[in-house]
Amino acid sequence: MHHPKLVSQREAAFALSTSERTLARLRATGVLPIGRCWQRKNPTNKNSHCLYNLEACLDVLSGQAKAAELEQDLLSQSRVQELGEG
Question: Which domains does the chain have, with CATH numbers?
Answer without folding.
Answer: 6-85 (1.10.10)
